[in-house]
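Quick check before the chapter quiz. The format below is the same one you will see on the exam, so make sure you can read both the input and the output lines.
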Amino acid sequence: MNYAIIGSGNVGTALARQFARSNIPVAIANTRGPGSLTAHATELGGSITARTIEDALKADVIILAVPFRAHPSVAAARPDWTGKIIVDAMNTYGIEPAELKGMASSEIVAAAFPGAKVVKTFNQLPAKLLAMNPAENGGRRVMFVSGNDAEAVALIVKLVGDLGFAPINLGGIGQSGALLEKGGALLLQNLIRQE
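Here is the expected output.
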């Protein structure tokens, strides 16, 4: 299984730090090209490789760490995403509910990536917390995972655990934002599962 992060902003960088900390190889790409990421990849360590978006999209697991409105441009790179796992690490900050048309944001992402298995995770923590070591006070910071394909969810649950978080499977992507929508974002950021 190989991994790529699309986006090198706060969330993409925080995720790259977790991959580096766990010594799990990952490609990172942005629209400015690999030259803009070379120093960044060097600072993070040998398991992080700067790539073009085209090369990064060859990975088995593609983590979207771009602004929500940017995901259609990533999706447009291929007509068929069969065989790929797309990890939706995006949030809908600044998106009006009417724009979502009553759907969970991950359902919209799934429609944009035909054939892909979409899994939602890495979105509940602000980038600063996401970048920190998940081990805290004798436990691990909780990370929620949701998706409609059991095999894809199991693979991402394993990845989340390998990155040091305590994964909790919430079920299908239609429920993925339910906890955040209930106004519990601050509480969700501070959940630690004791070992």
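If your answer matched, good. The chain has a mean pLDDT of 90.
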